[in-house]
Amino acid sequence: MSAFQTYLVGGAVRDRLLGLPVQDRDWVVVGASPQDLLAAGYLPVGKDFPVFLHPDTREEVALARTERKTAAGYHGFAFHAAPDVTLEQDLARRDLTINAMAEDAQGAVIDPYQGQRDLRDCVLRHVSPAFAEDPVRILRLARFAARFSHFTVAPETVALMRAMVDAGEVDALVPERVWQELSRGLMEKKPSRMFEVLRDAHALHKLLPEVDALFGVPQPEAHHPEIDTGVHLLMVLDQCAATSAPLTVRYACLCHDLGKGTTRKEELPRHIAHEARSEKLAAQVSARWKVPTDCRELAGLVAREHTNVHQSEGFGAEARLRLLERCDAWRRPERFAELLWACECDAHGRLGFEQRAYPQRERLLANLRATLAVDLAAVSAEAIARGAQGPAIGAAVKAARLGALRSFTDDRHA
User: Fold this and answer.
1) Chain segment 380-393, per-residue pLDDT in tens
2) Pairing of β 123-124 and β 152-153
3) Residue 189: CA atoms inside 13 Å, Cβ hemisphere, count?
4) What is the pLDDT of residues 281-333, one digit of tens each?
5) Is position 24 annotated in a ligand binding site?
6) What is the pLDDT of residue 49?
7) pLDDT by residue (tens digit) across 335-364?
8) Is residue 159 included in any domain, yes or no?
9) Is 170 in the same domain as 110?
10) Is 94 among the annotated ligand-binding positions?
């Protein structure tokens, strides 16, 4: 059996050098064949290229490999894994210099593509022209920009990404991979950076034309001192991150104002009835990228109802009851709470409004609790005793809930 060497590679090396917790460890074996690893007790798990489980740690290790572009998209690659593939060749196929470093068993860093320099200078830079062969890398880079928000993108990398878009590489992306990267980027600490980078790379208008259309669209300055609708959206997304909102809320916020990009010029800067247009466009985006049901449903709800939630301070009991009914709040209280979370992020995602009180969230939650406290069984039994049937019983339940809202006072939710 040939002697082979194992190296820690990629994100684990990068994060250790940055002083960050190491989440996942990726290993590469150099100087071995599949037969060598099998003989050493490694278990094969890879389908497309040789990946094995270490016999003791059960961590995944991959044979050093090179790759060659064979067709459009990210599936179009042929891999070559053999004992003569060097560590430098394996690292060369990686996306960014900060991800193209390795560490040997003694802890020495192997850095053939100046990743440590770019870590020091806070630069996201592609390793080689091979970056252009995989369009997923545009999304990955944008996601890294959202994670390392103080990093800039090297000008030559921006130029390369634009050339990739012009060449139609982004058109070959499949929904599952796009959603995977978008959802991960939304969950980073500064998701606005992902969309800034995608826009700078000219990829946003290909992937999310509904979002791209928001930039440059004005809003009334009294309510939106930042004016630009696209800027407002980015501020809302960063409010989501600041409050550790779940993915459902972040995706809903991404889609909440899409209708403003289709407002007729003569109606600007107002956006009459943008909510219905936003709901329709949110469904369009969700279908294109096969967004999970929980994210898709909340996005539609927030798009349709966010203005009503904002204005609910002036609602009477009847209007608040209708809002709860439209939101299916009694059957889905958790989703209603997420709607209010998204609306609060929307309200705070405005220049100078970041710290303003948003009483609508707690008051509507208290309204929901007040109506949930109604003893539906007792109300129904009483209605039946009076001879009510079918719709009449439902009307009695509605009247009881309305009564709860009418008697509601602010000090009851304390």
Assistant:
1) 999 999 998 889 99
2) parallel
3) 4
4) 999 999 999 999 999 999 999 999 999 999 999 999 999 999 999 999 999 99
5) yes
6) 64
7) 999 999 999 999 999 999 999 999 999 999
8) yes
9) no
10) yes
Burial grade of 176 (CB within 10 A; 0-12, 13-18, 19 or more): exposed
14 is in an annotated binding site: yes
| Cβ-proximal residues to 293 (8 Å cutoff; 6+ apart), any chain | none
User: Do 258 and 282 form a contact (C-beta atoms < 8 A)?
Assistant: yes
Q: Which domain holds residue 391?
A: 374-413
Q: Which residues contact 97 (CB under 8 A, 6 or more apart)?
A: 113, 114, 115, 117, 118, 125, 126, 127
Domain final residue pick, 121, 149, 181? 121
Residue type, 54: H
How far apart are the C-alpha atoms of 57 and 94, rounded to whole Å? 25
- Asked whether 127 and 67 are in contact (CB, 8 A), the reply is no
Tell me how crowded residue 268 is: count the other CB atoms within 10 A of its CB.
14
What pLDDT score does 80 carry?
A: 73
The CATH number of the domain where 25 resides is what?
3.30.460.10
H/E segment holding residue 179: helix 175-186
Would 248 be classed as within a structural domain?
yes
Q: Which residue has the higher pLDDT, 205 or 36?
A: 205
- The tokens for 345 are 């992020």
Contact 33, 83 (CB under 8 A): yes
Residue 125 in marked binding region: no
Rounded Cα–Cα distance for residues 384 and 395 (Å): 12
Consult the annotation and say whether 36 binds a ligand: no
Q: How far apart are CA 209 and CA 193, in angstroms?
A: 17
**Structural contact between residues 137 and 131, judged by C-beta atoms closer than 8 angstroms:** yes
Cβ atoms of 91 and 32 within 8 Å: the answer is no
Q: Could you report the per-residue pLDDT of 248-292, keeping only the tens digit for each?
A: 999 999 999 999 999 999 999 999 999 999 999 999 999 999 999
Show the tokens assigned to 233.
């959206």
Instruction: Enter the tokens of residue 155.
Output: 């000008």
- Residue 346 marked as a ligand binder: no
Q: How many CA atoms lie within 13 A of 46 on its CB side?
A: 18
CA 209 to chain centre: 16
Ligand-binding site membership of 356 (annotated): no
DSSP string, 310-371: HGGGG--HHHHHHHHHHTTTTT-HHHHHHHHHHHHHHHHSSTT-TT---HHHHHHHHHHHHH
Question: How many other CB atoms are found less than 10 A from the CB of residue 204?
Answer: 23
With beta carbons less than 8 A apart as the criterion, state whether 85 and 61 touch. no
- Is 194 a domain residue? yes
> At residue 227, what is the residue type?
I
